[in-house]
Design brief:
Elements (H helix, E strand, L loop, with lengths): L9 H11 L15 H8 L11 H5 L5 H7 L5 H32 L20 E3 H11 L2 H7 L5 H5 L4 E7 L8 E6 H15 L11 H4 L12 E6 L2 H8 L17 H17 L7 H8 L1 H32 L28 E10 L2 E14 L20 E7 L23 E4 L4 H11 L3 E2 L1 H5 L8 E2 L3 E5 L2 H10 L10 E6 H9 L7 H8 L9 H25 L53
Parallel strand pairs: 5-11, 7-8, 11-12
Antiparallel strand pairs: 1-3, 2-3, 2-4, 5-6, 6-7, 9-10
Helix pairs in contact: 1-4, 2-5, 4-5, 5-9, 6-7, 14-18, 14-20, 18-20, 19-20
Protein name: QDE-2-interacting protein
InterPro entries: Gfd2/YDR514C-like, Gfd2/YDR514C-like_C, RNaseH-like_sf, RNaseH_sf
GO molecular function, one term: nucleic acid binding
Length: 617
């Protein structure tokens, strides 16, 4: 039986005193250590007795468990107290479970920055890594028999990749003729996994202390020792399998022959000797290999390839529609036939005179349910007429207008540990501080109605300046649309209800399509690829402006690639990009006779976006 919870012991002492008819007997009792056996022992002592204060109390109907216990004869004392203890234990367990749920929700809301690295790029010096084999083998090697069995369900292949991201890195093992790359993940991500499991199971799993800790916290360098190279971000089991099936070949710059000093070589060999020793342990990644080779998984991977191919086709079509909205190409099968001269205004009119509206939402790094900033940037395509885009579309950057909203209730939430937040460094105007409940109405004003244009058909009929207005077509722009749409929903604005939103452009998808990247890149990485200068990222207003600029830059980039037959973009090609991508090539090639089709109005996942904004009730 669990011990009595200490949060409400006064009433329990009063009941015990009433049951035995004495006060002193219970004064020195440590209720934290009270068990059923203590109840029986204390209640059966000779100096205990039944309390009787007269006929009125004897005949009165007890109103609760304490009164019932006080009115009970001595031989019922133990049973009554067992019930009271059981009730208190149940209450304590329920409260513990609620605390655990809150802690798990907080931990699972933490987001890790996407590394500013391309595939095959070397990790920064000083990064701390954990071998993937050690992650997989942790329950059996370090948790003991009882706790290991409890932890094991959280370390299956499916569980490790469900609602969890891993930034994967690799180093080639020189003892294995450079043929077998060893997989690593940041130690901080593994420790975060342990934190989540600890909250769920009420245990205390940690990275071991002492000599074993070095296996979990590996650093490479200093000097010219080879460091792990970035493989990509895995957000699902399929991502993990795709990435690990397509590790770039050994980079000659990583040769140990070029390292300096015996100490560096000795350290490197010692680290890999420790990793190879893990292979003799149980588990250690065997399940990952089985998943790759299993027949049922092969069928699943085939379906996944079909899905990914369709997804890539959709990304390419979205880029073409964005080009049409900007006037960079015309609708129809010959829409991209004309040579694009960036130093002259576009000959095609921006389709539908659309208004681009880019939204960036910043949330607290320790609890993503706390929204701290909302940035909004707009680009009116009617202002592009007569303006040459210039190299990379930079002449249009100055036409972007922006607003930066700081959420009044959450100014206390500062991003410092995982992100370098800078809410006070908006570079495109004055920041505004608004209550969270006022932000949805502001977004409605910008997106839903304030940007209307006169109906030209009414002007033709002599309607003049008083002619009715129509909803202006709006194209929303995001860098990772799913994330920002969820954040907007959490503060009460549902983009799917805006009648004039005709399309959504996601710059992460544009970049992945143009670069054939296996996973999404950070905003700073895309800006660097395009050569766009930026300052004070992770400010909502700044990020909205830079995201809109990357949309323009990527649309121009892709248009030039098509006309020039260039596959590598601006020449900034990572080492890994010179190697084949493997057999999974479907969907990357685009039929230029396909102009992107009709606008694709976004449809919500009703299970994922269930809001009813308060201001619309």
């Amino acid at each position: 039986m669990d011990t009595v919870d200490t949060m409400d012991t006064t009433g329990l002492v009063r009941v015990l005193q009433s049951l035995t008819g004495t006060k002193d007997k219970w004064d020195d009792l440590n209720l934290t250590d009270l068990h059923e056996s203590d109840i029986e022992r204390y209640s059966s002592d000779d100096d205990g007795g039944n309390v009787s204060d007269g006929d009125d109390k004897e005949n009165a109907k007890p109103e609760n468990l304490e009164e019932a216990s006080a009115a009970a004869p001595p031989d019922e004392t133990a049973e009554r107290m067992k019930q009271l203890l059981a009730a208190k234990a149940k209450q304590a367990e329920a409260e513990r479970a609620q605390r655990a749920q809150r802690q798990v929700a907080m931990l699972e809301s933490i987001q890790f920055n996407v590394p500013d690295l391309v595939k095959g790029a070397m990790s920064p010096a000083g990064e701390v890594f954990c071998p993937w084999k050690l992650v997989r083998g942790y329950p059996e090697m370090y948790c003991g028999k009882v706790n290991g069995e409890r932890a094991l369900p959280y370390f299956t292949t499916q569980a490790l990749h469900e609602h969890r991201v891993w930034d994967l890195y690799y180093v080639y093992d020189f003892h294995n003729n450079k043929s077998e790359p060893v997989l690593f993940v940041p130690t901080s991500q593994f420790e975060h996994l342990l934190d989540v499991i600890n909250a769920k199971l009420d245990v205390h799993f940690t990275v071991p202390i002492g000599p074993p800790a070095s296996k979990f916290k590996m650093t490479f360098g200093p000097g010219s020792m080879p460091r792990p190279r970035y493989l990509g971000r895995s957000a699902s089991e399929d991502d993990f399998l795709d990435l690990t099936d397509d590790v770039p070949p050994f980079n000659p710059h990583d040769s140990l022959d070029q390292t300096t000093g015996k100490d560096e070589r000795a350290k490197f060999h010692a680290m890999f000797a420790a990793i190879r020793a893990l292979e003799k342990k149980k588990n250690g990644g065997e399940n990952d290999k089985k998943k790759k080779k299993g027949g049922s998984n092969s069928r699943k991977q085939k379906r996944s390839r079909v899905t990914r191919a369709a997804q890539r086709v959709a990304w390419g079509r979205s880029i073409k529609r964005a080009q049409r909205y900007l006037g960079l190409r015309e609708a129809g099968p010959q829409g991209a036939d004309k040579v694009l001269d960036l130093e002259k205004p576009m000959t095609a009119a921006p389709e539908r005179s659309a208004l681009f509206v880019c939204i960036d939402v910043e949330a607290y790094e320790r609890d993503n349910q706390v929204v701290t900033e909302v940035g909004v940037a707009t680009l009116d395509t009617t202002k592009l007429v007569g303006v040459a885009p210039g190299e990379g579309g930079k002449n249009w950057f100055g036409l972007v207008e922006a607003r930066h909203i700081i959420v009044k209730e959450n100014t206390w939430a500062k991003n410092e540990k995982y992100l370098n937040g800078c809410p006070d460094k908006f570079g495109f105007g004055q920041s505004e501080i608004l209550s969270q409940e006022d932000i949805p109405a502001l977004l409605e004003e910008i997106i839903d109605g304030a940007s209307s244009l006169p109906n030209p058909s009414n002007d033709d009929n002599g309607g003049g300046g008083d002619s009715p207005v129509e909803h202006r077509p709006v194209v929303l722009v995001f860098h990772d649309a799913d994330s920002d749409i969820r954040f907007l929903g959490s503060i009460g604005y549902n983009v799917f209800r805006a009648a004039n939103v005709i399309d959504i452009v996601d710059t992460t998808e544009m970049y992945r399509y143009i670069r054939r990247a296996p996973n999404q890149a950070s905003l700073s990485a895309v800006l660097a690829y395009l050569g766009i200068e930026s300052w004070n990222l992770h400010n909502g207003g700044n990020d909205a402006v830079y995201t809109l600029r990357t949309m323009v830059g990527l649309a121009v980039e892709k248009r030039i690639m098509v006309r020039g037959g260039v596959e590598g973009g601006n020449g900034c090609v990572a080492y890994a990009d010179f190697t084949p991508y493997g057999e999974d090539e479907e969907g990357w090639e685009s039929d230029e006779a396909d102009d992107g089709g009709e606008p694709e109005r976004p449809c919500p996942d009703l299970s994922d976006v269930p809001f009813t904004p308060l201001h619309r009730l």
